[in-house]
Amino acid sequence: MRYILLCCIYLALLSGCQQPATTPALQTGAEQTALYLPLLAGKRVGLLVNQTSMVGEQHLVDLLLANGVNVVSIFAPEHGFRGDHDAGASVKSGIDSKTGLPLWSLYGANKQPAAEQMQQLDVVIFDIQDVGVRYYTYISSMHYMMQAAATHGVSMLVLDRPNPNGAYVDGPVLDMKFQSFVGMHPIPLLHGMTVGELAQMIKGEGWINNAEQLQLSVVPLSGYQRSQPYSLPVKPSPNLPNAQAVALYPSLGFFEATPLSVGRGTTFPFQVIGYDKFSTGNFQFMPVSTPGAALTPPLMDKVLLGEDLRQVKAQGLSLQYLLRWQVLFKAQGETLFSSAGFMDKLAGTDRLRLQIEQGLSESEIRAGWQAELKQFRRQRQPYLLYP
Prior knowledge:
Elements: H1 2-14, H2 33-40, E1 44-49, E2 54-55, E3 58-59, H3 60-66, E4 70-76, E5 94-95, E6 102-105, H4 115-118, E7 123-127, H5 138-152, E8 155-159, E9 170-173, E10 188-190, H6 195-204, E11 216-219, H7 243-252, E12 272-275, E13 283-285, E14 304-308, H8 320-331, H9 340-347, H10 351-358, H11 362-367, H12 370-380
Parallel strand pairs: 1-4, 1-7, 4-6, 7-8, 8-11
Antiparallel strand pairs: 2-3, 5-6, 9-10, 12-14, 13-14
Helix pairs in contact: 5-6
C-alpha cells in the first residue's frame, strides 16, 4: 500500500498540483496525458471504458490510438461501450465498428474477463465516470477487473474522475451477507470517494484475492476537492441525464425495488415518483417505451400521479420519499417493497427495509448507522487523495 501512495504522490507532484495562489482548473486523470502515455509505451493495453471516457472532445480510445498506443481490446460495463443499453440489459461482445477492436462484455453472463482475454494484455486502464453511489455498478466492474488483473499479472491504471456526490458519506454500510453486483464492498451507500481512491481501498483492504500481487497505479485529478460541485459533461447512463437526476439517485434508486415508477420512459428519469392507484402528489406523467427504458420499467403507458422533484434541492441521501410512500401503501393495505430481496441488496442490509416497514422515523433510522460511518471514515483515510 505504501508503494501505491508514493506512486500517487509522485504523479501528483509531476502534475504540478502544489497549491497556487489561484484555484487551478480541474483536470481529470485522462486529461493529464503526460503522466500516463509514457507508461504505455511498448505495452499491450486493454481498456475498461464507456461513453464517459472523454478527453475534451475525443474519446480515450481514439486518443490512445492516435498516439501510437497498442490498444488490444475494449471491455464494456453495464449500459455498453457507447452507453446506449437499457439498465439490466445484457451487453454483447463483438467488434467495435469504429476501431475494429475486439469488444468484450463485462455485463451479462460474464462479469469478469476471461483468462485468454487477460493473457493478451500487459496493462488495463479503467476510465469511467462514476456517481459515488454503491449500487451503481461501474465500481463492481472495476472490482472484477482488478481481480482479473491480480490473478493474471496484468498491471492496472485508473484514470481518476470526480465524484459528483463526493461531499457525502451516508447510508448503511453493506453487510457482506448481502453482497451482490449492486453492492460488492463493505462501504456506505454514499462513500464520498473517487474511483481512484476506492480502487486503492479495494487493494489495500484485501477485498480482492491476491490483492498484494496487483500492480495498481492511479493518475489523480488535478485541482479537485471532493466537496466542490461537479456537473457531468456526459450522462453516465441513459437514465441519469442531468445533475438533478444524479443528485436524486441515492434516494430514488431504492424505488427500483417497489412497484412505483421513477420516470424511466420519460424525459426526466430519476426526477419523479408516481403510481397509478394512489399518490402522495398530483403531478401527472406517463412513461413510454424509449431507448434506455425499453425493457420492463413499471407502469409503462399508464397515466401516473405522484411527485415532481425536478426543482427540489437534492443533497445526499434522503429517506423522506420512501417513508412518505410507505405510509400511503400501508394505509391502502399494500406492500411497498414488492421486491424485498432486491431492496435488501440495494441497501446492503435488510435492516433499512424492516425499519421503514416498522414505521421508524428518519432520525431513528439514521442513528443506527452512525457508528459504522465513523469507523468507515477512519478506515478510508489512508486511501484518500484529495482534501
